[in-house]
Amino acid sequence: MGYFLEGLKQALRLLVPPSGEVLEIVGLSLLVSGAATALAAAVGVPFGLWLSLAEFRGRRVLVSLVQTALSVPAVLIGLVVYILVSRRGLFGFLGLLFTPGAMILAQALLALPLVTALTLAAFQGPAREGRDLAYSLGASRGRMLGTILRQGRFAFIAAMITGFSRVVGETGMTLMVGGNIKGATRVMTTAISLETMKGNFEIGLALGIVLLLVALVVNVFLQMCQGK
Amino acid sequence: MSSGKLRLAMIAVALLLSGALAPACAPKLDTLTLASTTSTFDSGFFDVFIPVFEKKFNCRVKVIAVGTGQAMRLGRDGNADVLLVHDRESEDKFVADGFGVRRLDVMHNDFFVVGPKSDPAVIRGLKAVDAFRKIAAGAVSFVSRGDDSGTHKKELRLWAAAGTKPVQGRYVESGSGMEATLRIANEKSGYTLADRATWLSHKKEIDALDVLVEGDSDLVNPYSVIVISPAKFPGLNHRLATQFADFIRSAEGQAVIRDFGKDRFGGPLFFPDVVR
Amino acid sequence: MRIEARGVYRKSGKHPILRGVSLAVRGGGAFVVLGPNGAGKTTLLRILALLDKPNAGEVLYDGRPASRFSGAERTALRRRLGFVFQHPLLLNGPVIANMRYALKLRKLPAAEDRIDRELAALGLASKKDLDVRLLSGGEKQRLQLARAMVLEPEVLFADEPTSNLDPVSARTIEDRLRKMAAAGKTVVLTTHNLLQARLFGAQVFFLKAGEIVQQGTAFQVLENPATLDVAQFSSITNVFHGRLVRADGESFLEIGPARIQVASGLDEGPVAAIIRPEDILVSRDPITSSARNHFSGKVTFVDDLGMVVVLQVACGDLTLRATITRTSLREMGIRTGDEIVLTFKASAVLLFPEE
Questions:
Q1: Which CATH architecture best describes the domain C238-353?
Q2: Which of B160, C79, C168, C180 is the most buried (most CB within 10 A)?
Q3: Does the beta carbon of A212 lie under 8 angstroms from any beta carbon of chain C?
């Protein structure tokens, strides 16, 4: 119990006033996870939407693949990204390893199946109905898609919230491809991991509390965007 | 679900649960909780030493390998019976604070200063402190563990002795373990301080770096064993912990240390400290 | 506009829904696709309206196969069509917003007077600003129709537009559709109620298990049903299963101990029989006429359907239903429990062979 109270105290000390280092870490967490979610959504939402509308032979197989991809462990993604972007790897020339770029890439890959599967699930029914409605009123294809997206915006913003939550709390993979370098690739989760390694449990807890607060703020913001 | 299938499912769940609980119900072997560091663990030393100890004393040893700081913390919280660590300053404080019975020498290995094969800072063959001075002055980067580990503390002592440190942009704090730190140095063509065991284990992978400074007395890395104080934590396995400390310092234990690594690395990784 | 289906085949997974349907719709007026639930009416309508594609076969518009249309041509064509779904597809928000949305989607200028006109025609003028969630089922369906009509379609497809609706809504919708058909536009609707088809004076396509079993005017389908299924579609009827036998050059239908004289060229054997309730005369006393079949029985039930009344009469082992006008009911003073006489001709019995 003493840990938690001490952790709470430390959290306050870290936040009021916010130390430069904490701001840096929080800022980078938001940047990396935000960019990763945006990237995953940019690919996943249209793909999920298309999948919910399309009718073709292998559709069910493709849907199964997407759902299987949900089970890919983060560490595996981390390993694959590591291999690809390390100097000897296929994309080594980009020099992405141990930079935020690699972290964004890995987190985007982690969030992608999630965002796709959730969009697919959300749009299954509404997409067909939206399409019927729009086509029956003589809408062009573009307007039809716009109608569906507008009808389902609640659902796909929820998909993005879930994607963001998943990646902002991820540690192992982010550590592996980012390197937890102070001032460059240290985010909240890897910082917690470091403090734990050092035996500074209270600071670790404090950072954890900060992480939760940040996640809460982001969620509230996104919920406002959903507009009820 | 039909009732037949439901029954089948419940049987399956019951079997799974009993399988999971079985180990907890099995007759308990005498267990020792040893807290040590990741670099020691990664060297593979425990894979060889622990079975020998377990067999001789008919017990089970749980090795918790974490960062030095966390290992000491485990000791302070009474979550381990015995420690095997390599951070003299913290160890002395630990015993002084009454958490450990006594600090005893076990073995030592050493650190290397490694860097890019081309050695732009030109430190090859120098003494450690001089090398560090040149690194700080040169247009090169240094990757630090940045995690309060034994290696990190040694590194900081070297900077203190050199009276300097690299400028901010050139000093990279990885906040990670030795392996990860080596990889970062490898990727960014930087210099770093690495322990012999980790270096030898990962030499092949770290293809852009070479050992540039070694053998300096400043680079020695001594390991100690500390039995946690039964006065502070009466519930620990004090008896077995003491047996462990005695064994690792006995002729037999020291022989294991001396022979470890010869077949894999061509030479020993650790050097026994108990002179007889 | 002429819309044709040629050999349209459509399946869902492995299960065939439409098995080679061919029909043509043109020249304005009302067309009804009639059939029991599961016949494939909705599927057929959606394919005709270019909402779905057939797995095989073609839909032709003015002779051109729809599969050869470009995306833009298809969109242009859809703009001349309207579709009313069985379950109203509406957007959340007020009624007026749904109406305006339709125009906005088509990039048509706002036409408030036309909106008001359509809403008034469907009795929704007073609900203009109400949120759709507060409308009744019937009102929602009326809104769907109003929204389709405000876009002035040449052809309107309506999928069971009045099933499960309150009588007022059903009546309002039927009137609106009839007016459209009468004005020379084309209305294609599906229903499982033949009387509704009759009301429209429509051309009927009877669809059963994915095939068109009969087509013609409602009157033709009603008078000369091609199969038992078609015959059972005028909602109230008498259906019996028995044996056709010949004796002394006459044909008789034996249903248990009862014997009905029929006029049929069928071979002896098991048959299904239909006697239309409106073909049965009701009287207090037996009448002398050319009609061969007389049954006395007790009135067990009087069902007032508005214009007509259906009497359910127990005649020994047989239960017969006969329809008379309300006026006749009143004049004859018939009540439940009364003994009456039912009379009908041999030719009034429609027979269908059974296996």
A1: Beta Barrel (2.40)
A2: C180
A3: no
